[in-house]
Design goal:
Order of helices and strands: HHEEHEHEHEHHEHEHEHHHHHHHHHH
Distance between the termini: 41 Å
Number of helices: 19
Strand content: 5-15%
CATH class of the largest domain: Alpha Beta
Structural class: alpha/beta
Length: 449
Protein backbone atom coordinates (compact mmCIF):
# COMPACT_ATOMS: atom_id res chain seq x y z
CA UNK A 1 0.00 0.00 0.00
CA UNK A 2 1.27 3.47 -0.90
CA UNK A 3 0.10 5.08 2.32
CA UNK A 4 0.50 8.76 1.43
CA UNK A 5 -1.34 8.15 -1.85
CA UNK A 6 -4.19 6.55 0.13
CA UNK A 7 -4.39 9.60 2.42
CA UNK A 8 -4.28 11.96 -0.57
CA UNK A 9 -7.03 10.07 -2.40
CA UNK A 10 -9.23 10.19 0.70
CA UNK A 11 -8.60 13.96 0.93
CA UNK A 12 -9.54 14.36 -2.75
CA UNK A 13 -12.74 12.37 -2.15
CA UNK A 14 -13.58 14.72 0.75
CA UNK A 15 -13.21 17.72 -1.61
CA UNK A 16 -15.16 16.06 -4.42
CA UNK A 17 -18.19 15.60 -2.16
CA UNK A 18 -18.25 19.37 -1.56
CA UNK A 19 -17.65 20.67 -5.06
CA UNK A 20 -19.48 20.61 -8.36
CA UNK A 21 -17.87 18.14 -10.77
CA UNK A 22 -16.56 20.73 -13.21
CA UNK A 23 -14.77 22.68 -10.46
CA UNK A 24 -13.35 19.55 -8.88
CA UNK A 25 -12.09 18.19 -12.19
CA UNK A 26 -10.45 21.49 -13.08
CA UNK A 27 -8.73 22.34 -9.81
CA UNK A 28 -8.44 19.31 -7.52
CA UNK A 29 -8.45 16.14 -9.63
CA UNK A 30 -5.16 17.04 -11.32
CA UNK A 31 -3.17 17.62 -8.12
CA UNK A 32 -0.34 15.15 -7.50
CA UNK A 33 1.06 14.15 -4.09
CA UNK A 34 4.80 14.78 -3.74
CA UNK A 35 5.72 14.29 -0.08
CA UNK A 36 4.42 14.13 3.48
CA UNK A 37 6.77 15.01 6.34
CA UNK A 38 6.33 13.99 9.96
CA UNK A 39 6.00 17.65 10.94
CA UNK A 40 2.68 17.77 9.05
CA UNK A 41 4.03 19.39 5.87
CA UNK A 42 2.27 18.19 2.70
CA UNK A 43 3.64 19.05 -0.73
CA UNK A 44 1.40 18.82 -3.79
CA UNK A 45 2.24 19.42 -7.45
CA UNK A 46 -0.05 21.67 -9.51
CA UNK A 47 0.16 21.49 -13.29
CA UNK A 48 0.54 25.23 -14.02
CA UNK A 49 0.72 28.67 -12.44
CA UNK A 50 -2.86 29.60 -13.31
CA UNK A 51 -4.35 26.56 -11.56
CA UNK A 52 -1.95 27.03 -8.64
CA UNK A 53 -3.14 30.61 -8.10
CA UNK A 54 -6.81 29.58 -8.07
CA UNK A 55 -6.21 26.60 -5.76
CA UNK A 56 -4.19 28.74 -3.35
CA UNK A 57 -6.77 31.55 -3.26
CA UNK A 58 -9.99 29.51 -3.22
CA UNK A 59 -9.44 25.90 -2.24
CA UNK A 60 -6.42 25.67 0.07
CA UNK A 61 -8.55 25.86 3.26
CA UNK A 62 -10.77 23.04 1.95
CA UNK A 63 -7.71 20.91 1.16
CA UNK A 64 -6.31 21.51 4.64
CA UNK A 65 -9.68 20.60 6.14
CA UNK A 66 -9.77 17.48 3.96
CA UNK A 67 -6.39 16.24 5.18
CA UNK A 68 -7.41 16.97 8.78
CA UNK A 69 -10.61 14.96 8.31
CA UNK A 70 -8.52 11.97 7.19
CA UNK A 71 -5.54 12.29 9.52
CA UNK A 72 -7.13 13.85 12.59
CA UNK A 73 -4.58 16.69 12.84
CA UNK A 74 -3.70 19.90 11.02
CA UNK A 75 -1.31 19.95 8.09
CA UNK A 76 0.43 22.73 6.15
CA UNK A 77 0.12 22.42 2.37
CA UNK A 78 2.80 23.64 -0.03
CA UNK A 79 1.89 23.88 -3.72
CA UNK A 80 4.65 23.55 -6.30
CA UNK A 81 4.53 24.04 -10.06
CA UNK A 82 6.87 22.29 -12.52
CA UNK A 83 9.22 24.91 -13.95
CA UNK A 84 8.37 23.89 -17.50
CA UNK A 85 4.58 24.07 -17.09
CA UNK A 86 3.04 26.03 -19.98
CA UNK A 87 0.53 28.72 -19.16
CA UNK A 88 -3.02 27.63 -19.95
CA UNK A 89 -4.75 28.95 -23.02
CA UNK A 90 -7.57 31.37 -22.25
CA UNK A 91 -11.04 29.86 -22.38
CA UNK A 92 -12.88 31.36 -25.36
CA UNK A 93 -16.06 33.21 -24.64
CA UNK A 94 -19.29 32.22 -26.30
CA UNK A 95 -19.90 33.82 -29.68
CA UNK A 96 -21.24 37.31 -29.29
CA UNK A 97 -20.35 37.42 -25.59
CA UNK A 98 -17.51 39.76 -24.73
CA UNK A 99 -17.59 38.98 -21.01
CA UNK A 100 -14.68 36.95 -19.57
CA UNK A 101 -15.52 33.33 -18.82
CA UNK A 102 -16.22 32.84 -15.11
CA UNK A 103 -14.77 30.04 -13.04
CA UNK A 104 -17.30 27.39 -11.98
CA UNK A 105 -19.02 28.32 -8.73
CA UNK A 106 -19.55 26.19 -5.68
CA UNK A 107 -23.01 25.56 -4.27
CA UNK A 108 -23.52 27.38 -0.99
CA UNK A 109 -25.22 24.76 1.10
CA UNK A 110 -24.87 22.47 4.06
CA UNK A 111 -21.89 20.09 3.80
CA UNK A 112 -24.26 17.26 2.93
CA UNK A 113 -21.55 15.38 1.12
CA UNK A 114 -20.21 14.21 4.46
CA UNK A 115 -21.28 10.59 4.24
CA UNK A 116 -21.44 10.18 8.00
CA UNK A 117 -23.89 13.06 8.51
CA UNK A 118 -27.07 11.04 7.95
CA UNK A 119 -29.74 9.63 10.23
CA UNK A 120 -28.44 6.12 9.52
CA UNK A 121 -25.00 7.04 10.83
CA UNK A 122 -26.17 9.00 13.86
CA UNK A 123 -25.47 6.93 16.97
CA UNK A 124 -28.50 7.06 19.23
CA UNK A 125 -28.42 6.83 23.01
CA UNK A 126 -30.30 8.05 26.04
CA UNK A 127 -28.48 11.39 25.81
CA UNK A 128 -29.72 12.29 22.34
CA UNK A 129 -32.68 10.04 21.56
CA UNK A 130 -35.33 12.75 21.96
CA UNK A 131 -33.51 15.23 19.69
CA UNK A 132 -32.94 12.45 17.15
CA UNK A 133 -36.64 11.50 17.11
CA UNK A 134 -37.69 15.13 16.77
CA UNK A 135 -35.28 15.67 13.87
CA UNK A 136 -36.61 12.57 12.11
CA UNK A 137 -40.19 13.78 12.56
CA UNK A 138 -39.35 17.16 11.03
CA UNK A 139 -37.52 15.52 8.12
CA UNK A 140 -40.47 13.22 7.45
CA UNK A 141 -43.07 15.98 7.63
CA UNK A 142 -41.55 19.44 7.07
CA UNK A 143 -43.56 22.21 8.76
CA UNK A 144 -46.16 19.64 9.74
CA UNK A 145 -44.50 18.26 12.88
CA UNK A 146 -42.59 20.81 14.97
CA UNK A 147 -42.00 24.31 13.69
CA UNK A 148 -39.59 25.65 14.69
CA UNK A 149 -37.42 22.82 15.98
CA UNK A 150 -34.83 24.22 18.40
CA UNK A 151 -31.96 21.83 19.21
CA UNK A 152 -29.40 22.80 21.85
CA UNK A 153 -26.40 21.24 23.50
CA UNK A 154 -22.69 21.73 24.08
CA UNK A 155 -20.25 21.88 21.20
CA UNK A 156 -19.36 18.57 19.60
CA UNK A 157 -22.45 16.54 20.56
CA UNK A 158 -24.10 16.17 17.13
CA UNK A 159 -26.28 19.23 16.50
CA UNK A 160 -24.77 19.92 13.09
CA UNK A 161 -25.05 16.21 12.28
CA UNK A 162 -28.81 16.37 12.90
CA UNK A 163 -29.21 19.55 10.84
CA UNK A 164 -27.36 17.84 8.04
CA UNK A 165 -29.41 14.65 8.34
CA UNK A 166 -32.66 16.66 8.21
CA UNK A 167 -31.70 18.38 4.99
CA UNK A 168 -30.42 15.17 3.38
CA UNK A 169 -33.70 13.38 4.15
CA UNK A 170 -35.88 16.28 2.99
CA UNK A 171 -33.87 16.70 -0.20
CA UNK A 172 -34.27 12.99 -0.91
CA UNK A 173 -38.06 13.10 -0.50
CA UNK A 174 -38.63 16.62 -1.85
CA UNK A 175 -35.99 17.34 -4.51
CA UNK A 176 -37.88 20.47 -5.57
CA UNK A 177 -37.58 22.10 -2.12
CA UNK A 178 -35.41 25.18 -1.69
CA UNK A 179 -33.31 24.25 1.38
CA UNK A 180 -31.07 26.92 2.92
CA UNK A 181 -28.48 26.20 5.59
CA UNK A 182 -26.43 28.98 7.16
CA UNK A 183 -24.22 29.36 10.25
CA UNK A 184 -25.53 32.35 12.21
CA UNK A 185 -22.19 34.15 11.94
CA UNK A 186 -22.44 34.04 8.14
CA UNK A 187 -26.05 35.29 8.28
CA UNK A 188 -24.81 38.25 10.36
CA UNK A 189 -21.96 39.02 7.99
CA UNK A 190 -24.29 38.80 4.99
CA UNK A 191 -26.79 41.27 6.40
CA UNK A 192 -23.99 43.71 7.29
CA UNK A 193 -22.66 43.44 3.73
CA UNK A 194 -26.15 43.81 2.26
CA UNK A 195 -26.84 46.97 4.28
CA UNK A 196 -23.55 48.54 3.23
CA UNK A 197 -23.96 47.55 -0.43
CA UNK A 198 -27.66 48.38 -0.64
CA UNK A 199 -28.57 44.80 -1.58
CA UNK A 200 -30.96 43.95 1.24
CA UNK A 201 -33.72 42.93 -1.19
CA UNK A 202 -31.52 40.20 -2.68
CA UNK A 203 -30.55 39.11 0.81
CA UNK A 204 -34.19 38.87 1.88
CA UNK A 205 -35.16 36.95 -1.23
CA UNK A 206 -32.46 34.36 -0.55
CA UNK A 207 -33.77 33.52 2.91
CA UNK A 208 -37.48 34.31 2.70
CA UNK A 209 -38.05 32.13 -0.35
CA UNK A 210 -36.71 29.03 1.44
CA UNK A 211 -38.91 25.99 1.97
CA UNK A 212 -36.60 24.87 4.77
CA UNK A 213 -34.26 27.14 6.72
CA UNK A 214 -31.61 25.60 8.98
CA UNK A 215 -29.53 27.96 11.14
CA UNK A 216 -26.55 26.68 13.12
CA UNK A 217 -25.15 28.43 16.21
CA UNK A 218 -28.13 30.77 16.50
CA UNK A 219 -26.72 31.98 19.85
CA UNK A 220 -24.42 34.29 17.86
CA UNK A 221 -27.43 36.45 17.02
CA UNK A 222 -27.42 37.77 20.60
CA UNK A 223 -26.82 41.50 20.96
CA UNK A 224 -26.77 42.17 17.20
CA UNK A 225 -29.71 44.50 16.65
CA UNK A 226 -29.71 44.64 12.85
CA UNK A 227 -29.34 40.87 12.58
CA UNK A 228 -32.12 40.24 15.11
CA UNK A 229 -34.41 42.67 13.29
CA UNK A 230 -33.79 40.98 9.95
CA UNK A 231 -34.10 37.48 11.36
CA UNK A 232 -37.34 38.37 13.16
CA UNK A 233 -39.00 39.30 9.85
CA UNK A 234 -37.45 36.32 8.04
CA UNK A 235 -38.76 34.00 10.76
CA UNK A 236 -42.24 35.50 10.60
CA UNK A 237 -42.39 35.33 6.79
CA UNK A 238 -41.39 31.66 6.72
CA UNK A 239 -43.51 30.61 9.67
CA UNK A 240 -46.62 32.30 8.30
CA UNK A 241 -46.02 30.56 4.96
CA UNK A 242 -45.78 27.19 6.79
CA UNK A 243 -42.11 26.73 5.89
CA UNK A 244 -39.89 24.64 8.15
CA UNK A 245 -37.36 26.32 10.46
CA UNK A 246 -34.69 24.41 12.39
CA UNK A 247 -32.32 26.16 14.80
CA UNK A 248 -29.30 24.86 16.71
CA UNK A 249 -27.68 26.53 19.70
CA UNK A 250 -25.16 25.80 22.44
CA UNK A 251 -27.73 26.86 25.06
CA UNK A 252 -31.53 27.07 25.42
CA UNK A 253 -33.21 30.22 24.13
CA UNK A 254 -33.98 31.47 27.63
CA UNK A 255 -30.24 31.52 28.41
CA UNK A 256 -29.25 33.65 25.41
CA UNK A 257 -29.02 36.80 27.45
CA UNK A 258 -29.30 39.70 25.00
CA UNK A 259 -31.81 38.01 22.72
CA UNK A 260 -34.91 40.08 22.07
CA UNK A 261 -37.97 38.74 23.85
CA UNK A 262 -39.97 38.59 20.62
CA UNK A 263 -37.35 36.23 19.15
CA UNK A 264 -37.01 34.18 22.34
CA UNK A 265 -40.74 33.47 22.39
CA UNK A 266 -40.71 32.51 18.70
CA UNK A 267 -37.80 30.13 19.21
CA UNK A 268 -39.93 28.40 21.85
CA UNK A 269 -43.10 28.22 19.73
CA UNK A 270 -42.39 24.74 18.43
CA UNK A 271 -40.33 22.03 20.08
CA UNK A 272 -37.12 22.37 22.08
CA UNK A 273 -34.87 19.31 22.26
CA UNK A 274 -31.56 19.04 24.09
CA UNK A 275 -28.53 16.81 23.52
CA UNK A 276 -26.45 15.75 26.51
CA UNK A 277 -22.93 14.25 26.57
CA UNK A 278 -23.08 10.57 25.52
CA UNK A 279 -23.07 7.76 28.09
CA UNK A 280 -20.44 5.00 28.04
CA UNK A 281 -22.38 2.64 25.78
CA UNK A 282 -23.06 5.39 23.26
CA UNK A 283 -19.40 6.45 23.28
CA UNK A 284 -18.35 2.86 22.54
CA UNK A 285 -20.88 2.66 19.69
CA UNK A 286 -19.61 5.95 18.22
CA UNK A 287 -16.00 4.74 18.28
CA UNK A 288 -16.92 1.43 16.66
CA UNK A 289 -19.00 3.12 13.96
CA UNK A 290 -16.27 5.62 13.12
CA UNK A 291 -13.69 2.83 12.95
CA UNK A 292 -16.00 0.83 10.69
CA UNK A 293 -16.38 3.77 8.31
CA UNK A 294 -12.58 4.11 8.17
CA UNK A 295 -12.20 0.33 7.81
CA UNK A 296 -10.00 0.26 10.88
CA UNK A 297 -10.11 -2.73 13.23
CA UNK A 298 -9.89 -1.47 16.82
CA UNK A 299 -9.77 -4.11 19.60
CA UNK A 300 -12.47 -3.96 22.29
CA UNK A 301 -10.03 -3.06 25.05
CA UNK A 302 -8.77 -0.07 23.05
CA UNK A 303 -12.33 1.02 22.27
CA UNK A 304 -13.28 0.91 25.95
CA UNK A 305 -10.07 2.69 26.96
CA UNK A 306 -10.90 5.62 24.66
CA UNK A 307 -14.55 5.67 25.78
CA UNK A 308 -13.50 5.80 29.43
CA UNK A 309 -11.14 8.73 28.92
CA UNK A 310 -13.01 10.94 26.44
CA UNK A 311 -16.46 11.53 27.89
CA UNK A 312 -17.86 14.89 26.87
CA UNK A 313 -17.30 15.45 23.18
CA UNK A 314 -18.08 13.29 20.17
CA UNK A 315 -15.52 15.16 18.06
CA UNK A 316 -12.82 14.05 20.48
CA UNK A 317 -13.90 10.43 20.09
CA UNK A 318 -13.84 10.74 16.31
CA UNK A 319 -10.52 12.55 16.47
CA UNK A 320 -8.98 9.73 18.48
CA UNK A 321 -10.12 7.16 15.91
CA UNK A 322 -8.78 9.29 13.06
CA UNK A 323 -5.46 9.62 14.88
CA UNK A 324 -5.21 5.82 15.27
CA UNK A 325 -6.11 5.46 11.60
CA UNK A 326 -3.38 7.93 10.61
CA UNK A 327 -0.79 5.96 12.65
CA UNK A 328 -1.94 2.79 10.91
CA UNK A 329 -2.00 4.22 7.37
CA UNK A 330 1.21 6.23 7.51
CA UNK A 331 3.41 4.09 9.74
CA UNK A 332 1.73 0.69 9.89
CA UNK A 333 1.24 0.94 13.68
CA UNK A 334 -1.57 -1.26 15.03
CA UNK A 335 -4.16 0.35 17.38
CA UNK A 336 -3.17 -0.98 20.81
CA UNK A 337 -3.55 0.57 24.28
CA UNK A 338 -0.14 2.25 24.23
CA UNK A 339 -0.85 3.90 20.88
CA UNK A 340 -4.30 4.95 22.09
CA UNK A 341 -2.73 6.62 25.13
CA UNK A 342 -0.57 8.75 22.84
CA UNK A 343 -3.51 9.51 20.57
CA UNK A 344 -5.66 10.64 23.49
CA UNK A 345 -2.86 12.77 24.89
CA UNK A 346 -2.52 14.50 21.53
CA UNK A 347 -6.29 14.90 21.13
CA UNK A 348 -6.68 16.47 24.56
CA UNK A 349 -3.83 18.85 23.88
CA UNK A 350 -5.21 19.78 20.47
CA UNK A 351 -8.77 20.31 21.67
CA UNK A 352 -8.01 22.59 24.59
CA UNK A 353 -9.53 26.03 23.94
CA UNK A 354 -7.24 27.97 21.63
CA UNK A 355 -5.79 31.17 23.06
CA UNK A 356 -8.44 33.86 22.70
CA UNK A 357 -7.06 36.24 20.11
CA UNK A 358 -7.40 39.98 20.16
CA UNK A 359 -8.76 39.85 16.62
CA UNK A 360 -11.52 37.44 17.62
CA UNK A 361 -12.65 39.70 20.45
CA UNK A 362 -12.65 42.84 18.31
CA UNK A 363 -14.44 41.04 15.47
CA UNK A 364 -17.18 39.76 17.78
CA UNK A 365 -17.68 43.24 19.28
CA UNK A 366 -17.72 44.69 15.77
CA UNK A 367 -20.43 42.25 14.64
CA UNK A 368 -22.49 43.05 17.72
CA UNK A 369 -22.30 46.82 17.20
CA UNK A 370 -22.27 46.69 13.37
CA UNK A 371 -18.88 48.44 13.35
CA UNK A 372 -15.74 47.38 11.48
CA UNK A 373 -12.67 46.22 13.43
CA UNK A 374 -10.70 48.97 11.66
CA UNK A 375 -13.02 51.63 13.06
CA UNK A 376 -12.86 50.11 16.55
CA UNK A 377 -9.07 50.38 16.49
CA UNK A 378 -9.05 53.75 14.71
CA UNK A 379 -9.53 57.40 15.68
CA UNK A 380 -13.24 57.89 14.82
CA UNK A 381 -15.41 59.11 17.69
CA UNK A 382 -18.98 58.49 16.48
CA UNK A 383 -21.11 57.41 19.42
CA UNK A 384 -21.63 53.85 18.11
CA UNK A 385 -17.93 53.40 17.34
CA UNK A 386 -16.91 54.81 20.72
CA UNK A 387 -19.33 52.47 22.51
CA UNK A 388 -17.96 49.49 20.57
CA UNK A 389 -14.38 50.53 21.36
CA UNK A 390 -15.10 50.81 25.10
CA UNK A 391 -16.77 47.39 25.03
CA UNK A 392 -13.83 45.85 23.17
CA UNK A 393 -11.35 47.32 25.64
CA UNK A 394 -13.41 46.04 28.57
CA UNK A 395 -13.85 42.52 27.14
CA UNK A 396 -10.17 42.34 26.18
CA UNK A 397 -9.20 43.16 29.75
CA UNK A 398 -11.74 40.70 31.19
CA UNK A 399 -10.69 37.77 29.02
CA UNK A 400 -6.95 38.25 28.56
CA UNK A 401 -5.91 40.22 31.63
CA UNK A 402 -3.57 42.26 29.42
CA UNK A 403 -1.94 45.34 30.92
CA UNK A 404 -3.49 48.76 30.27
CA UNK A 405 -0.42 49.76 28.27
CA UNK A 406 -0.63 46.70 26.00
CA UNK A 407 -4.36 47.19 25.47
CA UNK A 408 -3.72 50.82 24.50
CA UNK A 409 -1.22 49.71 21.85
CA UNK A 410 -3.89 47.48 20.29
CA UNK A 411 -6.22 50.46 19.93
CA UNK A 412 -4.11 52.87 17.91
CA UNK A 413 -1.53 53.59 20.60
CA UNK A 414 -3.97 55.07 23.09
CA UNK A 415 -2.35 55.81 26.40
CA UNK A 416 -2.82 54.09 29.75
CA UNK A 417 -5.19 56.72 31.17
CA UNK A 418 -7.57 56.43 28.18
CA UNK A 419 -7.85 52.68 28.68
CA UNK A 420 -8.43 53.07 32.42
CA UNK A 421 -11.16 55.63 31.75
CA UNK A 422 -12.89 53.38 29.19
CA UNK A 423 -12.95 50.45 31.61
CA UNK A 424 -14.31 52.58 34.46
CA UNK A 425 -17.08 53.95 32.22
CA UNK A 426 -17.97 50.39 31.17
CA UNK A 427 -18.06 49.14 34.76
CA UNK A 428 -20.40 51.99 35.71
CA UNK A 429 -22.64 51.49 32.67
CA UNK A 430 -22.82 47.72 33.12
CA UNK A 431 -23.90 48.15 36.73
CA UNK A 432 -26.71 50.49 35.66
CA UNK A 433 -27.82 48.95 32.36
CA UNK A 434 -29.02 45.34 32.38
CA UNK A 435 -29.21 45.18 28.57
CA UNK A 436 -25.57 46.25 28.23
CA UNK A 437 -24.56 43.76 30.90
CA UNK A 438 -26.29 40.93 29.02
CA UNK A 439 -24.75 42.05 25.72
CA UNK A 440 -21.25 41.95 27.24
CA UNK A 441 -21.94 38.53 28.79
CA UNK A 442 -23.04 37.17 25.40
CA UNK A 443 -19.98 38.63 23.66
CA UNK A 444 -17.71 36.91 26.19
CA UNK A 445 -19.56 33.59 25.81
CA UNK A 446 -19.39 33.78 22.02
CA UNK A 447 -15.69 34.59 22.03
CA UNK A 448 -14.97 31.67 24.33
CA UNK A 449 -17.24 29.24 22.43
Amino acid sequence: MDSFNDVFQAAQAYCKERMVDATYNLYIAGLEPISFEGSGQVTLRVRNDFICKIVRERYLPMLEEAFKSVLGFDVLIDLVVPSDSPAPAPVPAAEGDSRPAAAPSQPDELPSGKYEFTFENFIKGSSNQFAYAAAQAVAANPSGAYNPLFIYGQSGLGKTHLLNAIQIEIRKNHPDFNIVYVPCEKFTNEIITAIRAGTTEQFRYKYREADVLLVDDIQFIAGKESTQEEFFHTFNTLHEAHKQIVLASDRPAKEIKSLEERLRTRFEWGLTADIQPPDFETRVAIIRRKAELLRLDIPDDVTEFIANHLKNNIRQLEGAVKKLNAYHMLEGIEPVIGVAQNAIKDILNETQPVPITIEKIISEVGRTYNVSPTDIRGPKRNSNISAARRTAIYVLREITGMSMEDIGKEFGGRDHSTVVYAIKVMEKDIAADQRLRETVEDIIKNVRA
